[in-house]
Amino acid sequence: MNKYDYFYDESDLGNYPPKPEVQNAPKGLVNISLNFVFYILIYLFLFQGDLKLLSAVLMVMFVHEFGHFFWMRKFNYKESRLFFIPFMNLFISSTSNEQITLKEKLFLLFSGPIPGIFFGIIMLYFGNKNSHESLIQLGWIFLVWNLINLIPLDTLDGGALAECLSNGNDYTIKLITTIVTTCLVVVYALLSKSFLTLIIPVFLLMRLRSLKHLHEIRYKLDNKGINWRTSFLLLNNKQYWMLRKEMSDEIEPNIFANSDSSITKEILNTFVNRQIKSVLLNGPYIDISKRGITLTIVFWLLAFIGDRKSTRLNSSHIPLSRMPSS
Question: Which helix (H) or strand (E) holds 156?
């Protein structure tokens, strides 16, 4: 007997009210958290007012995010939008009314860092061939930036890759990677005496706390026979209310508990739905064999190793005082 049998049993589906509709997020600026702090730190402590270097990093960011955006449009993501916020980051906002396949998901995730690695290698080749210092520096930035994005941290492309390739069983990977990254940044901050850089590990540890909390919620749902490896759109009425009941202690603020206001209930439903969506894996439809997944992981590791090797071989061409930290 499968532990999710009752979750998928539709014999009593008519006993449950319709699930509230998802309210689209308002158009405009998106929330800025770790990205805001990270890029402000880069601007203040690494660029040192060097507008040429800052422009190079912003161009690398644009190329990276545009790769994601281009293929989102190709895969018919609804309302795909690319936000460009100087000195902060590029943000993609999109929605999809259909479950994406694993092939499409992997293509989308690799479409950011892989072109950056390719451009970096080309720039380093021609920069070294022609002794063009600016081109070498730009190629180096392309490689390092996309190397960082391949790391399986929760907020990066590498984290999303780990999640979809492991079907959500990536907590240990992200836990180890976050701890190791935090330690490396702390060591760098102490050795370089860049103590304000210690803000980054603080935010990484905050993210680690959120990741642990998410893991605990998913573990609880698994024990209750509720499958969180799905998307909000695929939940039927019964599955939605089962999920909402089990998560009630986590997501329903007491301030809304005794209110009959229709406006208040709409706000509550919007809040609850967003919390539920954050717990669901919203995983892609698996259309790749285990062998294909293994080859994808090998490709990911080779891209990461190749990027790192190229960075190490060419870092001697960049003055140390101008090198951004990784």
Answer: none
CA 199/CA 112 separation, integer angstroms: 26
pTM metric for this prediction: 0.71
> What is the predicted pLDDT for the residue at 273?
84
Cα–Cα distance between 228 and 231 in angstroms, integer? 8
Q: Which of 100, 92, 23 minimizes the C-alpha distance to 277? A: 23
Residue 178 makes CB contacts below 8 A (sequence gap 6+) with 153, 154, 204, 205, 207, 208, 211
CB 254 within 8 A of CB 234: no
For 29-39, write each residue's pLDDT tens digit: 444 444 555 55
Within 13 Å, how many C-alpha atoms sit on residue 100's CB side?
A: 24
Closest CA to 72 of 92, 91, 101, 97: 92
CA distance 324 to 305: 19
Which residue would you say has higher pLDDT here, 68 or 22? 68
The CA-to-CA distance between both ends of the chain, in Å, stands at 48
Cα–Cα separations (whole angstroms), residue 203 to 170, 176, 178, 217, 274: 20, 16, 11, 21, 22
Residue with tokens 């000195």: 87
